[in-house]
Amino acid sequence: MSFKEPTIAWIGTGVMGAPMCGHLADSVGAVRVFNRTKSKAQPLLDQGAVWCESPAEAAAGADLVFTIVGFPTDVRAVYFGKQGILTTLKQGAVCVDFTTTSPSLAMEIDEAAKQRGAAAVDAPVSGGDVGARKAQLSIMVGGDAAAVDRVHPLLQKLGKNIVHQGPAGAGQHTKMCNQIVIAGTMIGVCESLLYATKAGLDLETMLSSISKGAAGCWTLDNLAPRIVKRNFEPGFAIDHFIKDMGIALAEAARMRLALPGLSLVHQLYVAAAAQGEGSSGTQALMRALERLAGQTADA
Amino acid sequence: MSFKEPTIAWIGTGVMGAPMCGHLADSVGAVRVFNRTKSKAQPLLDQGAVWCESPAEAAAGADLVFTIVGFPTDVRAVYFGKQGILTTLKQGAVCVDFTTTSPSLAMEIDEAAKQRGAAAVDAPVSGGDVGARKAQLSIMVGGDAAAVDRVHPLLQKLGKNIVHQGPAGAGQHTKMCNQIVIAGTMIGVCESLLYATKAGLDLETMLSSISKGAAGCWTLDNLAPRIVKRNFEPGFAIDHFIKDMGIALAEAARMRLALPGLSLVHQLYVAAAAQGEGSSGTQALMRALERLAGQTADA
Amino acid sequence: MSFKEPTIAWIGTGVMGAPMCGHLADSVGAVRVFNRTKSKAQPLLDQGAVWCESPAEAAAGADLVFTIVGFPTDVRAVYFGKQGILTTLKQGAVCVDFTTTSPSLAMEIDEAAKQRGAAAVDAPVSGGDVGARKAQLSIMVGGDAAAVDRVHPLLQKLGKNIVHQGPAGAGQHTKMCNQIVIAGTMIGVCESLLYATKAGLDLETMLSSISKGAAGCWTLDNLAPRIVKRNFEPGFAIDHFIKDMGIALAEAARMRLALPGLSLVHQLYVAAAAQGEGSSGTQALMRALERLAGQTADA
Amino acid sequence: MSFKEPTIAWIGTGVMGAPMCGHLADSVGAVRVFNRTKSKAQPLLDQGAVWCESPAEAAAGADLVFTIVGFPTDVRAVYFGKQGILTTLKQGAVCVDFTTTSPSLAMEIDEAAKQRGAAAVDAPVSGGDVGARKAQLSIMVGGDAAAVDRVHPLLQKLGKNIVHQGPAGAGQHTKMCNQIVIAGTMIGVCESLLYATKAGLDLETMLSSISKGAAGCWTLDNLAPRIVKRNFEPGFAIDHFIKDMGIALAEAARMRLALPGLSLVHQLYVAAAAQGEGSSGTQALMRALERLAGQTADA
Ligand SMILES: NC(=O)C1=CN([C@@H]2O[C@H](COP(=O)(O)OP(=O)(O)OC[C@H]3O[C@@H](n4cnc5c(N)ncnc54)[C@H](OP(=O)(O)O)[C@@H]3O)[C@@H](O)[C@H]2O)C=CC1
Ligand SMILES: NC(=O)C1=CN([C@@H]2O[C@H](COP(=O)(O)OP(=O)(O)OC[C@H]3O[C@@H](n4cnc5c(N)ncnc54)[C@H](OP(=O)(O)O)[C@@H]3O)[C@@H](O)[C@H]2O)C=CC1
Ligand SMILES: NC(=O)C1=CN([C@@H]2O[C@H](COP(=O)(O)OP(=O)(O)OC[C@H]3O[C@@H](n4cnc5c(N)ncnc54)[C@H](OP(=O)(O)O)[C@@H]3O)[C@@H](O)[C@H]2O)C=CC1
Q1: What average pLDDT is seen over chain B?
Q2: CA atoms of B246 and B238, how far apart (whole Å)
Q3: DSSP assigned state of D100
């Protein structure tokens, strides 16, 4: 990698993928791009990226292939589909999946890549669209050390806290750990705000008492104020969070691990989605609890 | 209060009460003290506090009466018992209960105090024994403004973040909001660590990836490392936390409010206590989940 | 009891108490009656019962005192109040409480009765208002054998399946066991019907497949058809069921026993009550689940 | 079907499949059989069944193809695998899947069968191995009316309560409704027995009070006595029940339906499996709850 820039392919130019791909293009030059909806790749194409008609076409001849799509089924399609990456991935290439997806699927991709003499890295991120734009993502990395070392310089263009967690799947498992904690903080914060409402407290005054101590958390600092202002815009959308919790629960069941807390929160989010909040931010769990309570926190 | 120091009574000199009472004694001079077990008051007596044989005796003639005992039944005994505060509380006095107890009981005390021409303030605290010793408690205050104003200068000797939350009971309700959030963070953090264990991750490496982002919380920063080191010493004991969650759930049921998340965590803590962890720190929820999982995180 | 009829007092002439008292009056003659609302006792008075102005007055001189009021606080008032039974209960008397109430309270009454040289029996019932009218109640009996033997002939006027379960409180504990099973069947049946609705099944056809096999239960036979017909009339009212589950959970917490299933169902019923279903029948749990699902089963 | 017996293929000769296939063979003569482990088909072969080397070979030329394997992945392999039924299924044939599997998968099979000019029926059963041997299964049927009518005479050789529930998938959905109710009765009965144990009741005496009334259910009549005798043999194995609940929850999440009760029970069963009870009968949920309680019901 010292005297020649690698050829790079990028699949998935949505909310996260577009700015991330932009950072790489800035530093390594022209990137081969594919996205389901071409228009979302247009700004990148305008800056010199090369359009490809399929993941297979993008991956053909590439040294490094980056993907960040939506759901595990999308990942499966992009890698294992008829026009998927694994039909053309060249020997010695490394593919990196940034999508939050199933650890088992990450291991499956790793196996398949190895059978072609290539390698796979799973590298889910956290930090949201803001982190993606500012290149300040936290990146949780799984895969063989050699492959991880090879892509590390490029990951540094995208994030700050880049940690190699272990073999293929370990990045995804770590992201699941992250989401499990968030599920707990979300239910705690929403139930707390609802209790406060029923008890007749002033929500902001209540928050001023509790947010600096042992109850302190990112959710309390960042999402509770939005709930108080009845702002349920995403941030991170409920449908994506349901996907993530579903993955964690499926992995846990596979590993024979009971997670009663996560399971309950997952159900309540499914209820929120059933009530039409799938595209709202995760803080809209509040609304599902309010419907259960027959009362809203802004009454 | 300008030209004459008030006469102060203090009931309850346990882990929290002893250092708190010490701070007041430092600034206002001799305090009239009662505690169920006299020996725990001895250090204060050695510094000049005056021993009384009952809450009633302590409160007799006092301008301000402070209490911090264990459970709501203790509070009830101290105020409403045959030798209770309300048998001697003088007109114009203010009593302040720092115990984490039932908001309904706080309102009951307030009513009873008013019938004697006195006033009551509920002022539960957070910050633990460290906060008590350093006079850095967060204090959540409920009661009539006049009474709260009157005791405010003394509360400032004990804590930093002192917020008047509303009428009698509002301090306790705010403390319940605090505990509800903590219940969520505890289940999230413990299930996350357990998942990580089953998935074969290195726990500290995993924590280094997730603790600075959206999963960030006091519990992750302070209790997760203890769990990793298999340190289940209290901090805050499970039996007390079960009491607090029980109060919150009882109040919620009274207000007709469903809190499914808190309710589940409460049950899991009851299980932990059944397994002998009642005196362990709240992070020992981990152990109950490990027994459910048939696996420990230090395996 | 062979040559002289005992003097009988009866407190509580509501939905259950009125017909039960009527059966006793039919067989043993005039009964001394008290109820909070006198009008509800009028039909009994018209048939020869003697009105008393308080539980104390009714119990004065009685050999046997029967009570069936609503909530544990009512039981406490009726026994321990200023005009309560225990102020006048004569030596050698037996009091029988049919109310579904706290096992701990039953033990407390037993102790207090013994201190007066009397005895107490707890005898909660099941079978509903129909069972009460038809004298076909199931009666779960706790108390000392001698006291239980003494009242057994009269219990036989009220029910069929009369079982002595053990010492004071054992009747109430058995009733709790009954309610715990019902909580499980209720959530199972309601979630099943909701799933069927979402899946587009015809509810009655679905029920015809499942009701005779391993899913078979009283709730499926008796309440599922009411839900299908959108009949949410009580039967047994949600507010009473919430009381019962609250008692069971409080006893369980006291005994350090986690009951995660009961706890969840309790919360969902609290939600139902918050949504205005407190006086509906227990099958109206369906409505709380429907609100969660954003869909009704009759859509 | 009037003048010529249909050619029949049967795949899956396990606990359920072997006796069911035997009944058909008795009435229609030689059956073409495949099973993963040939030895389990030997008794049928001894009675004249014809061994085939794959599902494809069995289905080739068959008029009716019956399957009853274990898990959805097995069903997928048997139908869609390289040697699967759908590679040889002839025009006009009908395949019937008795496996308890995913409704979505049943619809997928139906689509694929139609593309070959054939038809598919989903027909999960209940009644256990006893019902299979006695030909007294309850059969929940989904599929097009013509196909269902065609196989109905043969289903009558296997069961009694045969109900056509609707289009493809409706049979499986109905079976899910059945399992959802059972999940509720299981948690109710186990928690009730555990409560009774902690409360010091005699379990059989307790059961004699509650089993005839509103708490009455198949689980109480059939499994509670086994628990009391510490008999945790299957009946229906926990691993299969976890599979079924997992299918129901996945379908529910897909339909955006929250089932908090089922979800909790599912988690507790996962815990039971983690503790080594996967092959025990479903009543061994008791053991997971006992571990949580730190106490066994036979203490
Ligand atoms: N948003 C956030 O804050 C965070 C998101 N994540 C995770 O990152 C991933 C991406 O999220 P986000 O960017 O918000 O989602 P988006 O839906 O905005 O982006 C996904 C992109 O992938 C494309 N895509 C999906 N399937 C295919 C396919 N088969 N072939 C080609 N392109 C495909 C989509 O195409 P099309 O344009 O046609 O829809 C879309 O442009 C998710 O897994 C999410 O959970 C992680 C951390 C934070
Ligand atoms: N209904 C049912 O299907 C079943 C009920 N039960 C249990 O039986 C008990 C009674 O139920 P039910 O009859 O339906 O309830 P009701 O409310 O109809 O009857 C309760 C009666 O008690 C009276 N009462 C309450 N407090 C006092 C008091 N302090 N002094 C005198 N009388 C008092 C009430 O008076 P007032 O008339 O003024 O309200 C009322 O008449 C409950 O604990 C219930 O859980 C058990 C099995 C089935
Ligand atoms: N047992 C019960 O009480 C009830 C069971 N059911 C359901 O019926 C189904 C069958 O249960 P049961 O008979 O107990 O289970 P078993 O495990 O005893 O039988 C399943 C059979 O299917 C065979 N099989 C699995 N995969 C394949 C494959 N790819 N190709 C060929 N054969 C295969 C197995 O082969 P091998 O011999 O190699 O393992 C085994 O003989 C399950 O879905 C269960 O949930 C429904 C109601 C009651």
Answers
A1: 95
A2: 12
A3: -
Quick one: how far is CA D129 from the chain centroid? 10
Residues of chain A with pLDDT under 70: 1-3, 296-299
Q: Are strands C137-142 and C125-126 parallel, antiparallel or unpaired?
A: antiparallel
Residue among A127, A138, A123 nearest A170 (CA): A123
Q: Considering only alpha carbons, which residue of chain D is nearest residue A277?
A: D256
Each residue of B168-187: pLDDT tens digit?
999 999 999 999 999 999 99
Angle (nearest 5°) at CA A243 between D108 and A281: 135
> What residues contact residue C25 under an 8 Å CB cut-off, 6+ apart?
C31, C44, C47, C48, C49
A134 touches ligand 1 (CB under 6 Å): no
Residue C117: Cβ within 10 Å count: 11
Residues in chain A: 299
Task: Encode pLDDT of B256-284 as tens digits.
Answer: 999 999 999 999 999 999 999 999 999 99
| Interchain pair A259, B195: CB under 8 A | yes
Determine, for residues A176 and B184 on separate chains, whether the beta-carbon distance falls below 8 Å.
Answer: no
Q: Radius of gyration of chain B from Cα atoms?
A: 21
Query: What residues of D are in contact with residue B271 (Cβ under 8 Å)?
Result: 292-294
Ligand 1 within 6 A of CB of A289: no
Position B138 pLDDT exceeds 60: yes
Q: pLDDT class for B135, splitting at 50, 70, 90?
A: very high
Q: What is the distance of C-alpha B3 from the center of its chain?
A: 33
Q: According to the model, what pLDDT value does residue B9 have?
A: 98
SS3 B215: coil
- How far is it, in rounded angstroms, from Cα C90 to Cα B77? 31
Contact yes or no for B151/B120 (Cβ under 8 A): no
Q: Answer whether A199's CB lies under 8 Å from A248's CB.
A: no
Determine whether the interchain pair D257/C195 forms a contact, defined as Cβ–Cβ distance below 8 Å: yes
- Looking at ligand 1, which atom is closest to the CA of residue A13? 41
List of residues 6+ apart from A246 with CB closer than 8 A: A266, D253
Any chains having at least 3 CB pairs less than 8 A from chain D are A, B, C
Q: Which residues contact C299 (CB under 8 A, 6 or more apart)?
A: C197
Supply angle C-alpha C254, C259, C263, rounded to 5.
100
Q: Which residues contact A277 (CB under 8 A, 6 or more apart)?
A: A232, A238, A284, A287, A288
Predicted ipTM beyond 0.85: yes
Provide the token pair at B130.
Answer: 């460290």
CA distance C289 to C194: 8
B245/D278 Cα distance (integer angstroms): 34
Mean pLDDT by 10 residues, chain D (299 residues): 78 97 92 98 96 98 97 98 98 98 98 98 95 96 98 97 98 98 98 97 98 96 97 95 98 97 98 96 96 74
List the structure tokens of C180: 């715990």
Give the amino acid at D200: G
Asked if the Cβ–Cβ distance from A271 to C288 is below 8 Å, we say no
Contacting residues of C for D292, CB less than 8 Å apart: 258, 260
Q: Tokens 């589909």 map to which residue?
A: A81
Which residue is closest to B252 within chain C, CA to CA? C270
Centre of ligand 2 to C-alpha C72, Å, is 10
Q: Which of D40, D157, D160, D175 is catalytic?
A: D175
**Predicted local distance difference test score (pLDDT) of residue B296:** 65
The 10s digit of each residue's pLDDT in B196-226 is 999 999 999 999 999 999 999 999 999 999 9
List domains and CATH numbers for chain C: 8-166 (3.40.50.720), 174-293 (1.10.1040.10)
pLDDT at residue C5, as a whole number = 84
Question: What kind and span of H or E run contains C160?
Answer: strand C159-166
The upper half-sphere exposure of residue A124, i.e. CA atoms within 13 Å in the direction of its Cβ, equals 28
